[in-house]
Amino acid sequence: MSHTNFNMRLDNDLRQKAYPVLEQYGLTPSQAVRMFFNQIAQTGKVPLSFDWGQSHTLSSNGEKLLRESIQAFENGETERFDSLDELNQAMAEIARG
């Protein structure tokens, strides 16, 4: 397999913001770009969402549920589980009604 060098210019501010995020994932910038290109090659699509600038709001019911959840959390009305299995079991029971 032959290789090609790929050079690009990157704004310093963007670099300072992006590199720490890549480091959190244990990735070098080269690895991240290679992953990006591999995803494009495998799917035939650019793996980005171009709707990031759109406003996303909750429905009135979603907002109500969120406020209730925050209030319950602040009041200490939460349930703790000792394992993921216990949590999954509780969620399954809730789903069954």
UniProtKB/TrEMBL annotation:
Gene Ontology terms: biological process: DNA-templated transcription; regulation of DNA-templated transcription
Taxonomic superkingdom: Bacteria
Entry keyword set: Toxin-antitoxin system
Protein known as: Antitoxin RelB
Gene3D superfamilies, sorted: Met repressor-like
Record has Secreted as a keyword: no
Keyword DNA damage appears in the UniProt entry: no
Pfam families xref list: RelB (PF04221)
Similarity comment: family membership: Belongs to the RelB/DinJ antitoxin family.
InterPro entries: Arc_rbn_hlx_hlx, RelB/DinJ
Lineage: Bacteria, Pseudomonadati, Pseudomonadota, Gammaproteobacteria, Moraxellales
